[in-house]
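Trying the structure run again after the queue cleared.
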Amino acid sequence: MKAPLMLRIHTKKGDKLFLYVQIIFWLIYVMIDLGLFTNKLLLFGTIALALSIVLITLVLTSYSYLDVRITPERVKIGKWKIPLDQVREIRVLRSNGSTADLIIVYEGGERTIEEVKNWKEALETFQRYKENMV
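Done. Tokens:
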């Protein structure tokens, strides 16, 4: 079986943040529509602007939880892009039921990803990528 082109690692915190982002987008849309329908666009537009500032702050401060993925070229954790040939191993640090904490060991150090939901799939994909590199 071939490895996928890219695998997004789903964490509990990342999925929760993604849901919050979706809800805030929906609230901004509703506020602007309410402003248009009730002729109080300035009031509801201001509320939508405040929500969009909250949304931008939330995304910028928690980018590393939202963008964790494994590709054939690199392992990407937020702003850190580690080339796959520098990654020595990905292993389970702790496992509690459906989630596990993964540790990525690479030549410059190590990174921990907490509460990964699809940890088995992440380990299998990493092994396939490493096998295809050799």
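Residues 63 and 78 are 6 Å apart (CA to CA). Worth checking whether this holds up in the mutant runs.
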